[in-house]
Batch of 2 targets.
Target 1
Amino acid sequence: MRVITTVQEMRTACKQARRAAGEDSTLALIPTMGAIHQGHLSLVEAGRTECSLVAASIFVNPLQFGPTEDFARYPRTFDEDCKKLDSAGVDLLFAPEVQEMYPEGATTFVEVAGLSERLDGASRPGHFRGVATVVAKLLNIVAPDVAYFGQKDAAQVAVLQALVGELNLPVRIAVCPIFRESDGLALSSRNRYLTPDQRTQALALSRALRSIQDAIDRGETNSAALRAFAVAELEKAPGARTDYVEVVNPRTLLPVDSVRSGALIALAAWIGDTRLIDNLIVPPDRS
Ligand code: AMP
């Protein structure tokens, strides 16, 4: 795996790799903020399967963190990350410094209005502007055929699908399923912040989603009732504080009054100082 830190070199390396791999070659991009875990690696695996070349990026993007958020203490485990990505089959790793991505005086931002203020965007003002800006830059630098993102960040998927569609960017967004621990906890770089006790409390998120799924299986379709099930489940965990539980259309992120298959049920909760998210897409009716 080749590790590259400048925009110019990455652009050239991607073009060269494509030329060397032949006319029909396809390039995958997996953007990450590092602290690589199995969830990230499942995206790499999907890229490996579908494309001939795989690029990944590690960049802890300051633009998507609020002033009181965890940018400074976000886990940075570069050497381990390199080993994992290399073993997973990444060909090119882009790992720029902040200065390289945002030179002094940079004033251009990408804003997906509306969508960016919903779900996590409501709790984290400016977050999706940061995400949309950095992803637009990465897509322009790497020029992949397919960019891979996790369903774990469902609102991010909606924002990026709008970005790519509305700006006519020549790339396909591929969405990979949420990778979970065997006990249900969705993998996240932020899980590293949890103490063993908080790790147990954090299971409240996936349990809350399960309680909603069970209620849907029993025939409940009313969104308010379903949200109440999830909030009750979250509140059972002494260390958990609900940020939001929403039942929405996965494309518009606007609330729906009653669920049907394809609806997005998304939640966020604080476990101590750590904010975690999880979600489910209501599966086709199994009755
Ligand atoms: P991050 O490094 O947290 O910005 O994540 C980079 C990419 O990995 C994003 O597209 C995430 O949605 C995705 N991702 C993170 N955790 C998981 C997971 N547990 N399962 C699947 N994808 C994930």
Target 2
Amino acid sequence: MNERETLRVNERGHLEIGGADCVELAKQFGTPLYVFDEAHIRTMMRVFRDTLEEEYDGNGLVLYASKAFSCKAIYRIAAQEGIGVDVVSGGELYTALCADFPAARICMHGNNKLPAELAEALENGVGRIVIDSFLEADRLEEEAARRGVVQTVLIRINPGVEAHTHAYVQTATPDSKFGFSIYDGSAEEITRAVLSKPHLRLVGYHCHIGSQIFEKQSFVLAVQKNLAFLAEMKKKLGFEARELNLGGGFGVWYTDADPKLRPADYRGYLSALIAAVKKGCAELGLNLPFLMLEPGRSIVGEAGITLYTVGAIKEIRGLRKYVAVDGGMFDDPRYCLYQSKYTAILANRADEAPTERVSVAGKCCESGDLIGVDMNLPSARAGDLLAVFTTGAYNYSMASNYNRNLIPPAVLVKEGKADYIVAPQSYEDLVRNDVLPKSLR
Ligand code: LLP
């Protein structure tokens, strides 16, 4: 197995996360279960925060991209670590506010923010809103004027950088629903439009080139292109951006095809980025902007695992063995969406070497409902506990009640002790919003 600080195999041959025995966790909380190691999350937040502090004089802010994993507890942790968050919906904003997250440190994104979401952002004093359409700029100006406030905004630009990652999570290719292209004149046009709006205070630009990226060069290229655009706007419009938000996208380990970065290694990514900002600004005669970064996956991805109980096992001789678990695409749709790969072990037999290659299937009524294909495991039996690694990001946050399965609860482990951060759903929760109209009663 892949060693990391969060995980280890204990003397009983069981997997431990954050000092808690996974077999005990399964007994206490049942399965399927999302488990998060609090220490890992905090370590990652600190790596980003401290690097900005030390290598950029603290002239910036780390915003945890909460779409990766959103619940009250994670906003509370982010608040305690002194970082900001990004939210992309009224629901994420509401959750953050429920956890008393300081609104000034919230940055709101979205390619089609609803009028109600914009109103909620203004109502609650969200620090920054990233404008992603002409319509939104008009709506926001109107709403801010109506309230007699001036809203700080950035503009999402698309620097046209192709990152080496899955097409669905690339966001800065020319054909993207996000952002204003810096090449077709639209980024300049929106800049002029926003500058002319008295209730919008334009402070800078935002870009996000994609997710699960390991090439430092992609980030550096994005910085160079962004800065060139900033310089162009300064020259043409006399507008010098004071803030630059470079988005997230730092990759994590899922399988041994990915680099295994230790928390401190992420510092290298930031250093490269910061160096590129300093160099670019010096060359272009720009003042160093207030720098923001939006890591999501790298903060929570490897901090989380999912525990499942093995059930039915089906062997199709000469073809494939399916090991079915009590979860599936309702708690982790990433294989279905992106053919994502994971590493798994049997948590109750964690000291055993893999002996076979199997497909891990979910329990949904759909052939494509898999957690993964060709996963290496010891020969599994019904009742074994399967641990899938690196499920902290975009698993719970993309879960659904498909087939009316219950979304698993999540627990946070701290110094070996676990507590719920997301309570279990019940069947009553499933029917809570169902309505039988009079005609069907
Ligand atoms: N900022 C913006 C504007 C974003 O759109 C995203 C991710 C992030 C930051 C955080 O990126 P990260 O550091 O997590 O890579 N559901 C997909 C990932 C979608 C990412 C969407 N945007 C998955 O499961 O892989």
